[in-house]
Amino acid sequence: MQHQEALSPADQEKLDKKISEWLSWDQYEPTRTEIQKMINEKRFPELGARLLTRMSFGTAGLRGSMGPGFAHMNDLVIVQTTQGLVKYLLSVSAGVKKQGVVIGYDNRHNSERFAQLAAAVFVTHSIPVVLFSKICPTPFVPYTVLKNGASAGIMVTASHNPKEDNGYKVYWDNGAQITSPHDKGIAAAIEQNLQPWEGSWKIDTKNPLVIDELEVILKSYKEDLAKMSLYRELNATTPVKFVYTPMHGVGQSYIMDCLSVFRHKPFISVEEQKNPDGDFPTVRYPNPEEGKSALDLAAATAKRNSATVILANDPDADRFALAEKQEESWKIFSGNEIGTLLGWWMWHCYQQTNENNVDPKNCYVIASTVSSKVLRSIANAEGFHFEETLTGFKWIANRADVLRKSGKTVLFGFEEAIGFMCGDFVLDKDGVSACLIAAEMIAWLNNQGSTIQQQLDTLAKKYGYHVSNNSYFLCHHPPTMNAMFQRLRNYEGSGTYPKTCGRFHVEFVRDLTDGYDNEQPDNKPVLPTSKSSHMITFTFEEGIVATLRTSGTEPKIKYYTEICGKPGQGSREELENVLDELVASLIEEYFQPEKNNLKAKSD
């Protein structure tokens, strides 16, 4: 083959091998044709980018842009990944041929076919598959794994990522996302099983090993959901009007179907966004966390219908967003604020349900370490337990699994990125249950003469104001990210972290990448460490905690800051001003956006 001079002989040889593999293995005509077209047009640097590296499999599974090549999401990569998962399951899960696996998918382009291909691969080794017959919320897969006692689950989704992306999310037999060492074991098995097996491309949804239990699971899910509802009469009579948007995703039919469980009156739909559409035509990003721009149509719908509350799910319905009309504007609540409300509400409901047998010492709430500490303050005051985990819902869910297996009651888990787990009947963030439970909470608050914001203020006065300021910078150049964090680790000479940030004084540093925490007697952090991403937390003498971390799924450097006040100490505005000052210094001194060519988040 003829190549551009820019490729070295060694790279030419490697690329020739990968081109040959692709054309030999890929049986999906559109991606085969596209690779062949690049060859014909001698676009070898592009071929190299697509074929010389492959998507890395980790605890988040796979997530990336769709297209031909081992570096992207496509049929061949799905087949190879599933072959690795099959081989790994056969090696570690003795009952997999009896217990089987669960596979679901969202409404993104190619999701259904990817799910069917995955099922075909399992069938080659006589492993039974529950393959849902239509799009479903992501939490339905971990729910079904738990309900059926399956060996594993797969959800084909890229959640709230851009329309060009898709993903492959793996759950273990405990109903929680995989953690180490399963990710490494699966990744190794993928590399050892790259050549497609006979039958791996034979999609056959009529195969007796492939069954659909979606209706059975939906019925069971609604029965478990019903246990979370205590105020059906209020729901049926509340004057509060709710607008709901699924953000062009899977949520509409499932939310509407589950309304009867709570006796909620019909939510007002955002007509332009209620139908599943993998192009997400009305939003720049299908992510309600992105703020006002994502909820513009919901606000317009609310105005036309005199509604005062917006409820939103992201496209795969595992996240939940909330907004409330306040005079002429909308207050979009942060993940920390929603977590505060739902955490308090789950404690309230537990007390009502167990009125004569309340045992707070047996109760737990869980939050990721970059989320607000407000539930810690509530837990300390009320006598139940608060625990922190690493960032990512897999850690929250796996910790919840350990706690409940030891006889504890897990009331709630959350992460600031609008992910909420109400109870423990789904061991993952669940935007369906969060949406319906939040609506009941709001109906109850209205009956008490309170709004959502007023309840937040009431909780702040009782437990102390907790003010957060979280955002991110975009960075598409990993070496720049690495250099930025290495600079922080060698700030004033080798192995020294910053001692100040503006006028603020660093008291403790915890580096979960390098395994350092000077708050601990042995300088070793309590939480697990990982070299796969950067994460440093600074605790300041002035009562502020700031965490800087790289995202595992997006080209972002995120920061999370919080100042924790005590009951009766300082106003919200005073705390906000102090925190804003710290964030400004943090950006200028630690991020150095101009020098590092970082692009700030824009709404």
Automatic annotation (TrEMBL):
Keyword 4Fe-4S: no
Top-level taxon of the source organism: Eukaryota
Cell compartment(s), UniProt: Cytoplasm
Gene3D superfamilies membership: Alpha-D-Glucose-1,6-Bisphosphate, subunit A, domain 3 (3.40.120.10)
The Alpha-D-phosphohexomutase alpha/beta/alpha domain, residue ranges: 55-193, 221-325, 351-463
Main location: cytoplasm
Alphabetic keyword roster: Carbohydrate metabolism, Cytoplasm, Glucose metabolism, Isomerase, Magnesium, Metal-binding, Phosphoprotein
TM spans (from-to): none
Pfam families: PGM_PMM_I, PGM_PMM_II, PGM_PMM_III
GO biological process: glucose metabolic process; purine ribonucleoside salvage
Gene Ontology molecular function, alphabetical: magnesium ion binding; phosphopentomutase activity
Cross-referenced PROSITE patterns: PGM_PMM
Cofactor(s) the protein needs: Mg(2+)
GO cellular component labels: cytoplasm; nucleus
InterPro entries named in the record: A-D-PHexomutase_a/b/a-I (IPR005844), A-D-PHexomutase_a/b/a-I/II/III (IPR016055), A-D-PHexomutase_a/b/a-II (IPR005845), A-D-PHexomutase_a/b/a-III (IPR005846), A-D-PHexomutase_C_sf (IPR036900), A-D-PHexomutase_CS (IPR016066), Alpha-D-phosphohexomutase_SF (IPR005841)
Family to which this protein belongs: Belongs to the phosphohexose mutase family.
PANTHER family: PHOSPHOGLUCOMUTASE 2B-RELATED, PHOSPHOMANNOMUTASE 45A
Listed name of the protein: Phosphoglucomutase-2
